[in-house]
Structures are given as C-alpha cells and as structure tokens.
Design a protein that fits this description.
With 228 residues, the protein is mainly α. Helices cover 46% and strands 0% of the residues. The termini are far apart.
Length: 228
Amino acid sequence: MSSKRGDAHRTRAQKHQNTYAFKNNLHDKHTPLIKLITNLNVCEVCEHCKSVIDWKIKYRKYKPLTQPKSCNKCGERKVKRAYHVICRDCALGSRCCAKCLKSADETKIIPPEPTPEEQVKLKAEMDQLIKSLPERKRRTFLRYMNRGKKKPRDPDADEYDSTEGGDDKKSTAPPHRTREELMQKFEQLKLATGKDDDEDDLGDFSSGDEDYEDYSDDDLSGSLSEKK
C-alpha cells in the first residue's frame, strides 16, 4: 500500500499468506509452564475478558504471575491469576468480573472452577440424589457428570493438524459442570423415569385385555343354537 495521502485503496491480495495457524506449543510443548498455560481454565470473568485472555493464551502472550498480588477491594495478596484485579472471594461476593469489574447484571460472568472441597461435597450430594433413580438412569447421570462440558473445537488447530500432519492433541480436562446443570439433568432423568413407569403401567393393562376375545352377537347366537 502506498504511503501517499488519500491512497488507501489496494487491489492486490495480502502478500504473505498464512498456510497454517499459529501453534503456541510447537517447540517447547513438554515444558511444565507451557502445559500449565495451555490447560488453563479461564473463569470468574465476563465473556469479553475471557476472549481477551484466551487470545493471549492462544498466541503465547499470556504471562502468569510469579507470586500473588494485592486485591483492589480487600487489599490482601490473594490474586493468583494474571490480569485479574480482585481475588476470587471478592469477585464471588460482589458478583462482578474479576478483570474489568463489570457487574453480573450488565454482562454474563463465567462461573468459577470449583475447589477440591466443593467437588467432594457436590459429588456426595449427587450420589445421595441418584439413589432414587433406576440403574440405567443412574449410569446416564454419572456419565454426564464425569465427562464435563465439551470445549468448542478450534478450526485453526484442525487446519494445522490437517496441513502439517501434527498428531499432538490437547489433553485438557473438560471443565466441571455446575450444580445447576447437574440438578437440571437430574430433573430431566426423573421426569423421564416417571414417563417410563406410566408407559409400563399402560402396557401391563393393555396386555391383560388381550386375554379376552371379542365375540360378536352372531357368534354368540350360533353357539347357543348348537347347544340346543
């Protein structure tokens, strides 16, 4: 493009075309730091801030903290994630984004990742609930809970794998499901169980009717005349 004033129109295509997408773990993918950054689950922020941090992770611009920094609300050194300005407790208490401080009423906040203690407590609660379900529904619920959420596929990464023949797949664990999602799935299975029971009852009732044969009036009169 010419630097001449007013000459902002270019007809030719871009000179340097990218043949494959950028891969942030191409050379040192086995180092612990790269694995930690690649498998990082961005949460406690709004969707816009999440996209910003995801871009930094994708193009290797993410710089993790070497030590916790001070929270802008409580003043304690409890902020352990980069680009966050308040700690987890303050973000959950005030229901706002930990990066841009927007309220949950203005934008959607990504739910936080549960702590190990919360995971154990949630698992115990779900184990107690699914005792009322049949074995088949119980196994369905356990598969739903253990698989977690599916992450959207990255088309750029698929393009790189197809062009370069890379077989290195991300071994990232799927995000944990929230309690609201698990309760919603439990209610769906419970309703499905009730419908199945009703259908079984109707099936038993209809099967009992098959024992009675349908005789017409002509058949009955013919049988009576034969007896006479």
